[in-house]
Amino acid sequence: MTMRIYVPGDAAAVSVGADDVARAIEAVIAAGKRDATIVRTGSRGMFWLEPLVEFDSADGRVGFGPVKVSDVKALFAAAATHPRRLGLVENIPFLKSQQRVTFARCGIIDPLLLADYEQHGGLKGLRRALATAPGDIVQQVIDSGLRGRGGAGFPTGIKWRTVAGVQNDRKYIVCNADEGDSGTFADRMLMEGDPFLLIEGMAIAGLAVGATKGFIYIRSEYPHAFRQMGRALDVARAGKLLGPDVLGSGRTFDLEIRLGAGAYICGEETSLLESLEGKRGQVRPKPPLPALQGLFGQPTVINNVLSFAAVPTILAEGAAFYRDLGMGRSRGTMPIQLAGNVKHGGLIERAFGITLRDIVEGYGGGSFTGRPVRAVQVGGPLGAYWPTELFDTPFDYEAFAAKGGMIGHGGIVVFDDTVDLAKQARFALEFCAIESCGKCTPCRIGSTRGVETMDKIMRGERVVENIDLVRDLCEVLRDGSLCALGGLTPLPVLSALEHFPDDFTRDAAKAA
Amino acid sequence: MIRPARHAGPEAWRPELMRELAEALKHVDGPLLPILHSINDRFGYVDERAIPIVAEVLNISRADVHGVVSFYHDFRKAPPKRRVIKICRAEACQSMGGDELYDEVSKACGAGSDVTVEAVYCLGNCALSPVALVDGKIHGRLDTEQALALVRS
User: Fold this and answer.
1) B138: contact with A, CB 8 A cutoff
2) pTM for this structure?
3) Partners of residue B95 in chain A, C-beta under 8 Å
4) SS3 labels along A271-309
5) Domain B83-152, CATH 3.40.30.10 — does that match?
6) Domain boundary assignment for chain B
7) For chain B, is the Cβ count within 10 Å smaller at the N or the C terminus?
8) Given B37, B71, B122, which is nearest A221 (Cβ)?
């Protein structure tokens, strides 16, 4: 039997040499005329081990990593004693303790082989949805407790019910794959490692609300994911997962992909719709809700990649299966992304309720540099900075909000003790200035004034008064902006001020 | 169906080709961004002379096209140099020395070099920071020496 050797084709793995390793393995196979083939999988999400090469064995897959080109020959000659040998991949503690639901297949299957997808539980949800009344599909998503994974946490099923309730000839399903938050990569990993799951979730959404057409809007910073998703759509069409006769049901659903153009604001749903229509990505006031007047003025379901990707499991395993995971009003699992200055960075999918400490110290193993961890930013550039004193906070929408933060899209960026939180607060305002769409004055101009004021603070000029000014400005940003960019930029600024005040006043003495 | 960009390398300005690119995509839903991407990919930038042509093909105003071109960071106003390095300047990369990487590479690739250095905010490889795209290819755990070797190779 042909031996299968697995090498991730994920962009992160490629960024540290996975393509070179795959070529080296190819050469060894060819030179030895071995009966072996390489499968380019997604990533398991243990990035410090990339490139992580896996071989089939009687007990399961055996991993080696991080593999360099110079390690490759010995992988064949002396695999049992290879210094990069990690043992069974599933037994690596980082992976073993996770609850992989959405990412159950990522890193395991060939992402572009529909048969592989189906063999590992794929299409069960869509088949069930095809045999279910649309109203019941929506009800199951409501009952699962799934909330939007893009950041806002709005109940997905309620959104769908609104769209389903509108009588209209044309409705759209739009996937927000404009994952712009620093520290996040789950959407990218999923599109590269298990793209059919997203397609399946969107097709189910189409059945639920009566839409036959969908769009996936992918940011241009993800060229790899964009190419992979394009290939997956071709395979899905050829395999009748998409098209005029979805899985032989006679029902229609098709998808197109669109490329963003380097604007963070297009991750905001109404900006994204404007951008899809070919306009400047400027925020629209709500109401009207996109559910009623969305893309091209038609009723539109717009959800994040991870929200759609959670749906096939809910349909396949039942709403109760999903709802029984998690805590409080945060149900199901959250793919948490651990990044930045961390020893073991990667994807951690767990039911809600795990503490920040378990994530950063347990999974992450502390900082990459070996210095003490001083702060983490959770939820992207609009998320709060957290000191280690708050690390017992459980990962939960409400628990995070209660402490003045948000979980956002689930990204955590770790900083060691060399970080200057005044500089980070300044950056939050600078980023807002760079990425503001310009619609709301506080965001467009206030952000620039904020940067200038932060510069004064950092030079030690009238520090107390200027800190007051920044607080005041943050209040105006929060209350006077239409969307989350202006509305939430105060979070990183004010949390840095609250938890790390010394970083702001340090220079006052210097100037005096 | 819109195809992923092919990295064929920039071509010299030709109005006929420009019109051809716009005509080829004018029937897709929301055609303006796909058309501008197609122009940006082929020529390396969106020349000002493209604006009236695209406006005419889509039957929209030149102001509308200009507004969109100027809104998005991806659409360059001038051709890039021979090599392009996009360095991430977002938080995860900052935590691993991304700012220093950006400053040092920018300094080394100043006037007279054949490298365009651009800032980008997150490439989704945040557990292997600092990260950059060199001519569209992603590289993680970069230091200045490696980055300069890549753009000079």
Assistant:
1) yes
2) 0.96
3) 340-341, 413-416, 419
4) HHHHHHCCCCCCCCCCCCCCCCCCHHHCCEEEEEHHHHH
5) yes
6) 15-71, 83-152
7) C
8) B122
